[in-house]
Specification:
The protein has about 350 residues and is an alpha/beta fold. Helices cover about 45% and strands about 15% of the residues. The protein has a seven-stranded parallel beta sheet with strand order 3-2-1-4-5-6-10, sandwiched between helices. A three-stranded mixed beta sheet has the order 7-9-11. Strands 8-12 form a two-stranded parallel sheet.
C-alpha cells in the first residue's frame, strides 16, 4: 500500500481518486483538514475497500510513526502543504510550521521506519515529495524555462518554505540514503480546486455575478498544468524515477493571467450565457497587485519526457473547457466550501 499525505486537498485529492481508478493498491490518506481540505472531494471513494482516511498532521510524529508501523507502506507521496501565496504574505507562520517543520518531522518518522525494513523492502521503498516551480523565482519574458538545475530564488514566504522542504528532502537522501524523489510542478488547474486560486475563483465569481479580480495588469505569465496530467506524472515518477532526482512537471502552456480569465469567460459565454446577453468578461476588475508578485514562471519538462516518457495529455484549451464544465456540473461542491469565512477572505484580499 501507499501513504498519501494531504490527500484531501486539490492535487492530493485528485491523485487519490485517480490512483484508485487505475491501481489495485490500497491507499491511506493522512490529512489535517485545514480550510482547503475537503472530504467531499473524496465522496465517491469513501467506502472503497482499498481506501482509508486518517485525520492528522504530518508534524505529529507519534501519529505518523504509528501509521507507518501499522500499514507498512512501500511508498509515501507527500502533498501536505500550505500553498497559497496570498495567505503566506498575510500569515507566514502556518507555512513555516507545515511546509518546513512538518516536512522535517515526516522525514524523521520515515527515516526511522525505513531503517527497520528488510533489505528488500528498503530497496523498494520511495518517498516522493511534491513541490512547486515557485521555488525557482521569477523569469524575464525571454529567459529560458526552469530546468531542474535552475538556482533556487524563492520570492514569497510560501515559495521559501517549499524551497526549504525541498532542501530537507535532498539532504535526507544524501546524508541518510533515504530513497527520495522530488517533483516541481507548474500551476495546476482542474476539478475540486479550492476557489481562492485564479481559475476557480473567477469561475465562481462569474457565475455569482461578482467581479473577476485580476492583479495589476494581468500580464503575469504562468505555465498551466491540468491536475490529472500532474497525477499521471507523479505515478510515473514513483514507478520509474531515479533515486535522488528532481523532475519538473509542466503543461507546456504559458499563458498570461488575463488571457486565462478571458478564455474561461468565453467558454462560460458558450456553456452558460448570462441572462442579459453580455459576456462574463465585462465582470473583469483590475485590483492592486500583491507584494513581490512574480512576473513569469515557465517549466521545461523535457527531462521527464526524455527519461520517463511522460508528457501531458491535455492542451490548455481542452483542459480549461473540462474544468469549466466540471464546475458547472458540480455547484453543490462549490457552495459547500464558499462559506462566510471564505467570503470574508476574498473581500479583504481583493478589496471588492
Amino acid at each position: 500500500m501507499i501513504l498519501v499525505t494531504g490527500g484531501a486537498g486539490f492535487i492530493g485529492g485528485n491523485f487519490v481518486l485517480d490512483w484508485l481508478d487505475v491501481q489495485d493498491e490500497p491507499v491511506v490518506n493522512l490529512d489535517l483538514l485545514t480550510y482547503a481540505g475537503n472530504l467531499e472531494t473524496l465522496n465517491r471513494v469513501a467506502d472503497h475497500p482499498h481506501y482509508q482516511f486518517v485525520q492528522g498532521d504530518i508534524g505529529d510524529s507519534a501519529l505518523v510513526s504509528r501509521l507507518l508501523a501499522e500499514h507498512q507502506p512501500r511508498a509515501i507521496i507527500n502533498f501536505a502543504a500550505e500553498s497559497h501565496v496570498d495567505r503566506s504574505i498575510t500569515g507566514p507562520e502556518d507555512f513555516i510550521q507545515t511546509n518546513i517543520v512538518g516536512t522535517f518531522r515526516l522525514l524523521e518518522a520515515t527515516r526511522a521506519y525505513w531503517s527497520r525494513l528488510s533489505d528488500h523492502d528498503r530497496a523498494a521503498f520511495r518517498f516522493l515529495h511534491v513541490s512547486t516551480d515557485e521555488v525557482y523565482g521569477s523569469l524575464d519574458k525571454t529567459a529560458p524555462a526552469f530546468t531542474e538545475t535552475h538556482r533556487y530564488e524563492p520570492n514569497s514566504p510560501y515559495s521559501a518554505s517549499k524551497a526549504a522542504s525541498d532542501h530537507l528532502v535532498r539532504a535526507y537522501h544524501h546524508t541518510y540514503g533515504l530513497p527520495v524523489l522530488t517533483t516541481n510542478c507548474s500551476n495546476n488547474y482542474g476539478p475540486y480546486h479550492f476557489p481562492e486560486k485564479l481559475i476557480p475563483l473567477c469561475i465562481h465569481n462569474a457565475l455569482t455575478g461578482q467581479p473577476l479580480p485580476i492583479y495589476g495588469d494581468g500580464q503575469q505569465i504562468r505555465d498551466w498544468l491540468y491536475v490529472k496530467d500532474h497525477c499521471s506524472a507523479i505515478r510515473r515518477v514513483l514507478e520509474a524515477g531515479s533515486l535522488g532526482e528532481v523532475y519538473n512537471v509542466g503543461g507546456w502552456n504559458e499563458k498570461a493571467n488575463l488571457e486565462v480569465v478571458k478564455t474561461l469567460c468565453a467558454i462560460l459565454d458558450e456553456e452558460q450565457p448570462r441572462a442579459d446577453g453580455l459576456s462574463y468578461a465585462t465582470q473583469i476588475s483590475f485590483v492592486k497587485d500583491r507584494p513581490g508578485h512574480d512576473r513569469r514562471y515557465a517549466i521545461d519538462a523535457s527531462k521527464l519526457e526524455r527519461e520517463l516518457g511522460w508528457k501531458p495529455a491535455e492542451t490548455f484549451e481542452s483542459g480549461i473547457r473540462k474544468t469549466v464544465r466540471w464546475y458547472l456540473a458540480n455547484p453543490d461542491w462549490v457552495a459547500h466550501i464558499t462559506s462566510g469565512a471564505y467570503r470574508d477572505w476574498t473581500n479583504k484580499q481583493y478589496g471588492l
